[in-house]
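for the recovery benchmark. C-alpha cells below, seq after
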C-alpha cells in the first residue's frame, strides 16, 4: 500500500454550499490502498464536527470503492448530539453509495447506544439529486425501550423540506423525562407527526398526534397515580417571530389520583382540554383555553408567565353541576370530620377565579342550590347566592334560602346581605329566620378565615318559639309553651358553638338563665352540650298544666350545674329544684300531683286508707316546702329532697314534700339511688297517667 495524494472529487453544488465551509476547516488524514494504480479507500477523521443543531465527537468517514459504480460508506462517531438531546454514543452507520445519476444511499444500517433509550438499530435509504441538490430519506428505528419508528424526509434544491414520522413506544421510556425520579409508569404510546421547514435546519410548522393506551404511573409513596388510562393529544406548532400553536387533549378512560383528589373519566364522554399557545423570548402564554367535563360543566381559562414574574392565570367556569363538583373537588380539601366535609351540595353555579400569585379575586352565582348532611343533621333547600371577592379590597355577597332543618328542627327562609373583606365576612343588616312557630333574629354576624380556619360571631334573640315541637323532635319529655330569649354573643370555631354571656328567657312567669353554654362537635355524630342553668320564680301551675303532672301552685327556684348532654341525652349533672314563697301565691298541690310525686320519688304511690279517704275527700292540699335534687353520674341518679344532698346522705330517706295545715301530707322517699333510665320512665309514666315499672338501682 502506497501513500498518494487523493484524487480530486466534487460534490453537488448545494452540498458544497452547505458543507464546504465546514469541511475546509477539518483536520483530517487520508489513507488509501492501491490496486491497479487507482484509489479504493478514502478515510476522513476529525476531533469534532459541529453544525446548526448537531455535533459529532471523533467522527470517522470511510469511503470504499466497490469497483462496479458504487461505493461503501461507513460513518462512526464516539458521541452524537442532536439539538439539546445528547447521550448518544458509539454510533455507526453504513450504506452503499451510488454516484451515477442522483446520489443514492441504499440498504443503510446503523447502530447507536442511547443513555435514555438503550441500544438502537437503524435501517435507512436516501438520495441526493446531483444537479439540483434535492434530497430524500427513509428511516426505520427499533429499540426495546425506544419502540418502533418509521420516518420520511424530503427537501428541495431551494432548501425547503417536509417530513413524516410514525411509531409506537413503551410509555415509561418517554415519560421518564416528564415524571419525577423513581416514579413507575406503564402503557403504550402511538405517535404520528408531520413537519416542514423553509431551510434544512429550520422548522416552520409541525403537528403531532399522540394516543396513549393503558397508561399508568405511580409515585413512590402512592399519593399520585393513574391507571388504565386512554387519552389522545394533538399539538400544532408554527414558527414566525415567535412560536405559536394549539393543543387538544381528550381523556377517554381511566382513573387519576393526585392526593387529595381522585377522578375517573366520565361515562358520558371524554374530557376535553384545549388551548392556543404562544412562546417567545422570556415569556409564554396560553390563550382561549377550554375545559369540557361531561356531567360536571365547562370552563374557559388562560395563563401567562412574563420573565421571572409570578404565573398569572384565570378560570371561568360555566354550568357547573354542584353535586359532583363539591364531592370531587371541594370536599377532599376540607378538614376531615368537619361539617362542610360531610355535606352534599346541589344546584348549578358559575365561578370566575383570578390567580397571580395566589387567589386574587373571585366571582360566583349559585342557583337552585342545596346543602344536605346524609346523616340528617342539616338540610338547606332553595339556595341562591352571588357575589364578588377581592384579595385587595372590599367585596359583597348575598345568600338566600327557602327552608331547611337542623337536627330535624325545621326553619324558614333567609335573606342575607354581606360585606366581604380579604379574610372576613360581615352582615350588612339584621336577619330573621322562622323557627318553631316563632323566629330567631341574628345581628352583627362576622366570620373570619384569616388563620385558615373558619370562625363565626353573632348575637340576636329568640321570639315566641313553640316548645312542643322542640321537645318532640329532640325526643324529650313533652313540653309545651313558648320561649323568648335574648342571645348573647355566640361564637363558632373548630366545630364548637359557645356563648360569651348569659342566655336569658322569660318562661312560666319566671326567668331561666343559661350560662357557659357550649356545644362541641356541633352538627357532628355525637354533639356534646355543656351548660349551667339557673331557675328564678317559675310559676308551678302553668308548668304542671303543661306536663299534665297534676295541679301544683307556687313558685320554684333551682339550678342545674355541670350539665352534660351527649347526643342530646343527659350523661351528668347536679340539679336541685325547690319551692320559694312568693307573696299572693298560694302553695297548693292536688291529689294527682301527690300521687305522681310519690312515684317519682321511688314509692308505689299513696294507697290504703289514706288514698281511699283523704284523696277522695280533698282535691287539693297546702304544703310548706317542696323540693327534689338529682345528681346524675354514670347512668345512676342519686336523689335528695328539700334538705338537699347533705341531709339525704345522713339517712336512708329524704323528704320531697312537707305539708302545711290540715289535712297535712308529707311525701318521703326511701330509694335514694336509682337508674336514670328508670327515673325517666317514672316521669313519663306520671305525665301519661300510667303505672310505672318498679325497679332498683
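predicted aa per position
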Amino acid at each position: 500500500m502506497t501513500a498518494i495524494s487523493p484524487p480530486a472529487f466534487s460534490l453537488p453544488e448545494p452540498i458544497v454550499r452547505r458543507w464546504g465551509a465546514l469541511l475546509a476547516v477539518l483536520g483530517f488524514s487520508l489513507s488509501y490502498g492501491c490496486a491497479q494504480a487507482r484509489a479504493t479507500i478514502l478515510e476522513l477523521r476529525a476531533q469534532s464536527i459541529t453544525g446548526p443543531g448537531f455535533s459529532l465527537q471523533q467522527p470517522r468517514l470511510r469511503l470504499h470503492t466497490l469497483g462496479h459504480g458504487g461505493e461503501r460508506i461507513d460513518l462512526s462517531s464516539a458521541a452524537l448530539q442532536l439539538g439539546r438531546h445528547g447521550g448518544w454514543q458509539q454510533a455507526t452507520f453504513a450504506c452503499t453509495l451510488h454516484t451515477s445519476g442522483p446520489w443514492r444511499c441504499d440498504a443503510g444500517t446503523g447502530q447507536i447506544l442511547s443513555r435514555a433509550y438503550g441500544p438502537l438499530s437503524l435501517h435507512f435509504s436516501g438520495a441526493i439529486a446531483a444537479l439540483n441538490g434535492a434530497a430524500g430519506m427513509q428511516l426505520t428505528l427499533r429499540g426495546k425501550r425506544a419502540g418502533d419508528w418509521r420516518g420520511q424526509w424530503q427537501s428541495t434544491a431551494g432548501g425547503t423540506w417536509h417530513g413524516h414520522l410514525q411509531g409506537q413506544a413503551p410509555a415509561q421510556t418517554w415519560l421518564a423525562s416528564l415524571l419525577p425520579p423513581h416514579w413507575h409508569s406503564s402503557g403504550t404510546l402511538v405517535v404520528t407527526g408531520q413537519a416542514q421547514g423553509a431551510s434544512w435546519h429550520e422548522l416552520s410548522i409541525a403537528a403531532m398526534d399522540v394516543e396513549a393506551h393503558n397508561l399508568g404511573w405511580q409515585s413512590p409513596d402512592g399519593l399520585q397515580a393513574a391507571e388504565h388510562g386512554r387519552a389522545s393529544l394533538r399539538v400544532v406548532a408554527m414558527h414566525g417571530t415567535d412560536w405559536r400553536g394549539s393543543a387538544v387533549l381528550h381523556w377517554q378512560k381511566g382513573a387519576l389520583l393526585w392526593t387529595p383528589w381522585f377522578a375517573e373519566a366520565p361515562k358520558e364522554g371524554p374530557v376535553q382540554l384545549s388551548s392556543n399557545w404562544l412562546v417567545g423570548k422570556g415569556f409564554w402564554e396560553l390563550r382561549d383555553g377550554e375545559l369540557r367535563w361531561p356531567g360536571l360543566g365547562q370552563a374557559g381559562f388562560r395563563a401567562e408567565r412574563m420573565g421571572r414574574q409570578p404565573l398569572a392565570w384565570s378560570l371561568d367556569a360555566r354550568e357547573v353541576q354542584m353535586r359532583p363538583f363539591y364531592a370531587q373537588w371541594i370536599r377532599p380539601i376540607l378538614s376531615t370530620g368537619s361539617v362542610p366535609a360531610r355535606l352534599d351540595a346541589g344546584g348549578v353555579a358559575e365561578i370566575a377565579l383570578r390567580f397571580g400569585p395566589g387567589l386574587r379575586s373571585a366571582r360566583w352565582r349559585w342557583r337552585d342550590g342545596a346543602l344536605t348532611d346524609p346523616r340528617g343533621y342539616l338540610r338547606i333547600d332553595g339556595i341562591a347566592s352571588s357575589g364578588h371577592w377581592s384579595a385587595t379590597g372590599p367585596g359583597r355577597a348575598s345568600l338566600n334560602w327557602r327552608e331547611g332543618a337542623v337536627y330535624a328542627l325545621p326553619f324558614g327562609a333567609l335573606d342575607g346581605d354581606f360585606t366581604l373583606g380579604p379574610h372576613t365576612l360581615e352582615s350588612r343588616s339584621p336577619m330573621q329566620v322562622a323557627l318553631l312557630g316563632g323566629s330567631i333574629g341574628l345581628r352583627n354576624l362576622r366570620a373570619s378565615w384569616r388563620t385558615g380556619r373558619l370562625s363565626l360571631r353573632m348575637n340576636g334573640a329568640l321570639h315566641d318559639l313553640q316548645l312542643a315541637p322542640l321537645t318532640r323532635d329532640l325526643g324529650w319529655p313533652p313540653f309545651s309553651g313558648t320561649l323568648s330569649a335574648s342571645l348573647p354573643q355566640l361564637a363558632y370555631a373548630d366545630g364548637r358553638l359557645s356563648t360569651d354571656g348569659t342566655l336569658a328567657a322569660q318562661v312560666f312567669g319566671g326567668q331561666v338563665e343559661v350560662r357557659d353554654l357550649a356545644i362541641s362537635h356541633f352538627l357532628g355524630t355525637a354533639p356534646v352540650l355543656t351548660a349551667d342553668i339557673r331557675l328564678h320564680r317559675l310559676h308551678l301551675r302553668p308548668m304542671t298544666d303543661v306536663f299534665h303532672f297534676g295541679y301544683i301552685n307556687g313558685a320554684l327556684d333551682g339550678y342545674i350545674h355541670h350539665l352534660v348532654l351527649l347526643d342530646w341525652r343527659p350523661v351528668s349533672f347536679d340539679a336541685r329544684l325547690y319551692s320559694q314563697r312568693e307573696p299572693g301565691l298560694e302553695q297548693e298541690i292536688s291529689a294527682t300531683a301527690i300521687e305522681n310525686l310519690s312515684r317519682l320519688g321511688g314509692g308505689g304511690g299513696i294507697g290504703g286508707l289514706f288514698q281511699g279517704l283523704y284523696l277522695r275527700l280533698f282535691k287539693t292540699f297546702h304544703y310548706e316546702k317542696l323540693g327534689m335534687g338529682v345528681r346524675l353520674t354514670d347512668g345512676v341518679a342519686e336523689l335528695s329532697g328539700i334538705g338537699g344532698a347533705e341531709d339525704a346522705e345522713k339517712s336512708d330517706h329524704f323528704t320531697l314534700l312537707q305539708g302545711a295545715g290540715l289535712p297535712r301530707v308529707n311525701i318521703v322517699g326511701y330509694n335514694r339511688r336509682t337508674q336514670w333510665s328508670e327515673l325517666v320512665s317514672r316521669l313519663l309514666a306520671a305525665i301519661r297517667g300510667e303505672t310505672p315499672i318498679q325497679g332498683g338501682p
